[in-house]
Amino acid sequence: MPKSKENQKSYWRKNLQTLAILLTIWFIVSFGCGILFVEELNQIRIGGYKLGFWFAQQGSIFMFILLIFAYVYRMNQLDKEFDVDEE
């Protein structure tokens, strides 16, 4: 963990900010595209399936996996910034 109390608080604040942003993106994709905007998205077809259906069934899962990789990347950046990386 960062050495001073202020660095610890800053590190934790940036971590929570990153989580909030990523969870907001996931919510928009899963709830927004899969439920709220499904009728508009169903006008588009991919591989014979309506896009709204695809987002509800597959898209939110794929987005969650991409967000996991984004979180790992961002946390590695934060670890280096606050000199708590494993290297």
UniProtKB/TrEMBL annotation:
Ranges where the Sodium symporter small subunit domain occurs: 8-85
Keywords associated with the record: Membrane, Transmembrane, Transmembrane helix
Signal peptide positions on this chain: none
TM segment ranges: 20-39, 51-73
Entry keyword annotation includes Nucleotidyltransferase: no
One Pfam family, short name: DUF4212
Name of this protein: DUF4212 domain-containing protein
Organism: Algoriphagus sediminis
